[in-house]
């Protein structure tokens, strides 16, 4: 098999785990490439062994959920499954713990893993003239937020062409199932099994006596925006990566992407059994 490895220089100082992973896979007669295009992540002892994602059979991310999302966006649409080695605090998306690295790599090299699908979101940002300002995909979430604006945002929520409500809040989160344990969870949203297919809509700190999320059928089309008289341009981010400022004249359209993201798994996925350990790890040093 051909493996593509991406590591986080901040969580993997000196790329110790990256180099250990590469050495172990090579000892198993596996091919290894390092397709990470970020310059600051190329300074490791095997920097002469670079490459692209072409022909890669399995991608491995080493770090936390941020590294996992970066790698996901690098390979989405290429038909390459992804698995993560957790060096972060929680690692909701990463499956392999560093102490299980060698045994896990042996199973991966033998093809002893299963594939599972994760629903992706597709997002378009359009101005009043219909000009495309942003087109992106999200595994986790799309977030409209105040940024450095101090005033509350009058956010509009439209579902399948029908305006549902205007929500005075610090912003809105539209998440896929995988994203339910991210920002949406911190804002009081429900925990959703990541292999379900649905869309989660959660306000951020709404100025209201009720604060409830919407759980939406996956074929729906969601549109979020800002009331016409709002004088500022809040920020919109997609998986914490792509970002654009939006104003009352802009439309943000979100729907389920046609193609899911493929993840590799080494175990029967007992999501809710593992969940308490992941949440209890929040804020603890590893």
Summarize the structure.
The protein has 5 helices and 19 strands. With 286 residues, it is an alpha+beta fold. A 6-stranded antiparallel beta sheet has the order 8-7-18-15-10-11, with no helix packed on it.
Strand and helix layout:
Layout: E1 2-7, H1 16-27, E2 31-33, E3 58-63, H2 65-75, E4 82-86, E5 96-97, H3 101-109, E6 114-118, E7 121-126, E8 132-138, E9 141-145, E10 153-159, E11 162-169, E12 171-175, H4 183-186, E13 199-204, E14 214-216, E15 221-226, E16 235-238, E17 242-245, E18 251-256, E19 261-265, H5 271-280
Parallel strand pairs: 1-2, 1-3, 3-4, 4-5
Antiparallel strand pairs: 6-19, 7-8, 7-18, 9-12, 9-16, 10-11, 10-15, 12-13, 13-14, 15-18, 16-17
Report on this model:
By secondary structure, the protein is an alpha+beta fold. It is built from five helices and 19 strands. It has two domains: 138 residues, Probable inorganic polyphosphate/atp-NAD kinase, domain 1 (Rossmann fold, 3-Layer(aba) Sandwich), CATH 3.40.50; 136 residues, Probable inorganic polyphosphate/atp-NAD kinase, domain 2 (Tumour Suppressor Smad4), CATH 2.60.200.
For this entry, give a set of tags.
alpha+beta, Rossmann fold, Tumour Suppressor Smad4, 2 domains, six-stranded antiparallel β-sheet, 19 strands
